[in-house]
Specification:
79 residues; alpha+beta
Length: 79
């Protein structure tokens, strides 16, 4: 799986601001948590999710997807 982020837009706080907006909206709508799916090969994304408070809940080992094999992960942020 290839990282689809364009290099010139990385490390500018765009993802952080988008995630803040999503979290704010979810709280205003009385959501109890946010959940997302990612993959073990996306190390930068996984570190980002950790930094903003998401916790790894489920990891499915050796999933074959997109012509590759990696761990499929489900993360959750309690609101």
């Amino acid at each position: 799986m290839q990282n689809s982020g364009i290099k010139k837009f990385r490390r500018r706080g765009i993802s952080k601001e988008l995630m803040r907006t999503v979290i704010h909206h979810a709280r205003n709508q009385a959501y109890q948590s946010l959940r997302l799916e990612t993959y073990s090969c996306l190390t930068n994304a996984r570190e980002f999710y950790k930094r903003i408070g998401f916790q790894l809940k489920v990891s499915n080992k050796d999933v074959k997807k997109y012509g590759q094999v990696f761990d499929q992960e489900f993360w959750e942020l309690k609101l």
